[in-house]
C-alpha cells in the first residue's frame, strides 16, 4: 500500500476526548507499510563482516526478503563463500570483496565495486569489527589502539562517506555498536571506546541526514555467539559466555539479524538516531 504524502502540515482541529480517527484530518495511517515477504525486493545492501556471525545472519535474512548483498570481509574466505552460497540459494546475488576496511582506499573500492555491479546502493550495514582482550590499559599498545580504531571506527566513517552520494531518500545506514558502549568493559577498553565513538557518530549523522530522508540507526548486541568470541577469550570464558545475562545464555546471530532487518525496512520509517538492544535483558538506558 502506498503511503499518503502530506504528513507535515495538518489543518487546525479539535475533538472531545478520547476522540475518533474518522474525524481527524488527515486520518492516521494504520495499514501495514509493506506486506510480509519480499520486503527488500530490488534493494542492494552492503553488509561488512558478512562472512560470519551477525553479518552472515543479516545477509541471509536480507536475501530472504529479496535483497542483493555485497559482503566485504577481512580474510575468512571459506566462511565468506559459504555465506555467498546460502544467499544465492535464496535467489539473490552476493558479491564478496576481500580486504582490510581499516584502510581508506579499500573502503572506496567497496563502494565503487558495489555501484559498478548493481548501479545503486540502498542499505549500508557497518558491522565489521575486531577486539583483543587486555588485562589493563598499560597492556594496550599504541599499535593495538590504532588498529582497533581503524577497524571499528575509521572504516565506518570512510564507508559511509563514500556511500553517501549514492544513497537516496529512503536509504538506511545501520551501525553495529555494543552493550559495552553503554556499560564499558574492563578487559576490552579500546573496543568499548570504539563502540562509544560509533554510537556518537550514529546519533550525529542521523541529525545531519534527517532532512535528506536517509535514516541512521544502530544495533547494540550483548553477548552473541560468533567466531570473534571463540577466537578472543580463554576456554573458560568461552564456556561461560553469556551466562551472566538475565536470560542466562548467549544470543545467536539470527536473534540479532531481525533488528537490522527492521531498521532497514520502511516499517521503521519514523525511527532515526536510535539503537536497538538485543542483549539478553540487560538494562542499559540508552
UniProtKB/TrEMBL annotation:
Q: Which SUPFAM superfamilies match?
A: NAD(P)-binding Rossmann-fold domains
Pfam families assigned:
adh_short_C2
CDD domains per UniProt: SDR_c1
Oxidoreductase among the record's keywords? Answer: yes
Q: Which InterPro entries match?
A: NAD(P)-bd_dom_sf, Sc_DH/Rdtase_CS, SDR_fam
Keywords tagged on the record: Oxidoreductase
Keyword Oxidoreductase carried by entry = yes
Bilayer-crossing residues are none
Enzyme class label? oxidoreductase
EC number, as in UniProt: 1.-.-.-
Q: Show the PROSITE patterns listed in the entry.
A: ADH_SHORT
Region described as Disordered: 1-38
Checking Gene3D superfamilies in the record gives:
NAD(P)-binding Rossmann-like Domain
Q: Which GO terms describe its molecular function?
A: oxidoreductase activity, acting on CH-OH group of donors
The entry sums up its family as follows: Belongs to the short-chain dehydrogenases/reductases (SDR) family.
The name under which this protein is listed is General stress protein 39
Q: Which species is the source of this protein?
A: Chryseobacterium taklimakanense
Its taxonomic placement starts with: Bacteria, Pseudomonadati, Bacteroidota, Flavobacteriia, Flavobacteriales
